[in-house]
Amino acid sequence: MVRVRPSLEIQFAEELAALQEVDRRPRPPQWQLSPWAVRTYLIGGTLETGLEITPKYIGSARAIEIAIATLVTDRALLLLGVPGTGKSWLSEHLSIAISGHSRFLVQGTAGTPEEALRYSWNYAKLLAQGFSAEALVASPVLRAMEEGAIVRIEELTRLPTDVQDSLLTILSEKRLPIPELKEDSFARQGFNLIATANQKDRGVNDLSTALKRRFNTVVLPLPATLEMEVEIVRRRVEALGMPLELRQETPILEEIRRVVTIFRELRQGMTEDGQRPLKSSQGVLSPADAISVVNQGLALAAHFGDGQLRAEDLLAGVRDVVVQESPQNAIAWEEYLETVIQSRPGWEAFYEAGRRE
After folding, report:
1. pTM greater than the 0.70 cutoff
2. Count of C-beta atoms within a 10 Å radius of residue 202
3. Confidence tier at 241 by pLDDT (50, 70, 90)
4. Domain 8-219 maps to which CATH number in 2.130.10.10, 3.40.250.10, 3.40.50.300, 3.30.499.10?
5. b or e along 111-123 (b: 16 or more beta carbons within 10 Å of the residue's beta carbon)?
6. Distance of alpha carbon 238 from alpha carbon 232, whole angstroms
């Protein structure tokens, strides 16, 4: 069976095994790798065996070290950032490097019930046996507590406030009361929690002060430089493994650079050289948007073109992403097309494609 997206522990099994082989540093209880090896797995490096560990996160190494150090302690970790900064990607890789898998996951939504963080009951067994351990259905959080593993909660601030607060006892006392069974479930060593939250959602269901104190927050910023953002997009497009056979590598990188440049300039309201102010987009225009546009362009080139990624394969996606947030973004895009793209050397094909859209 060919999977659309193999689990990351399968994709990076060779690297994880190689790190375990050379890792001689102390490991916290239940950790598959030492904090040093987790850091190497995330930011990349060359092992003494000569194996190259690919970077999973391109950005501040110090932020990664703080995140790992947090998980060594009893405090939970909150990864905060705008969409597209790699919060979910980083949390999944952290879980895999520490626990060996990322199976324990709760997706936060407005309709997520408290049972998703605590436990529920198998009602057929409940009717037949009454309250019993066999009738209890453990949540991902409870299963992680029992195993001594990492559990992830995506979009924590989308959970209703009363559901969020069900984490208080779990995080502060590392136990989960089960009054129906007149017992408590205590977490094994190695248990911890990684949550992600979108800065754009602040105010939707903001965390209570009590819950904030249980988390150490690491903010993941947008890429600081054009080269960093281009590299992030290139690596993620490659990692997604779209089965396309393109004729040349260099034009792909050039087109990625153009897409990233457009998004950065409209996001910042200024050209990269700092010479011309622009109408800024009201959307974030993140690396995730650029990845989506490039992947769509690759599919168009492969199935409806000659296999060569061209400007016309990208422009529809670029324009849709830019203008989707607000009608004013359409004005900003038209102005950018006529004042920046038209006059930029080497961008003639992009301008012509933009005029045809």
Report:
1. yes
2. 12
3. low
4. 3.40.50.300
5. ebebebbbbeeee
6. 10
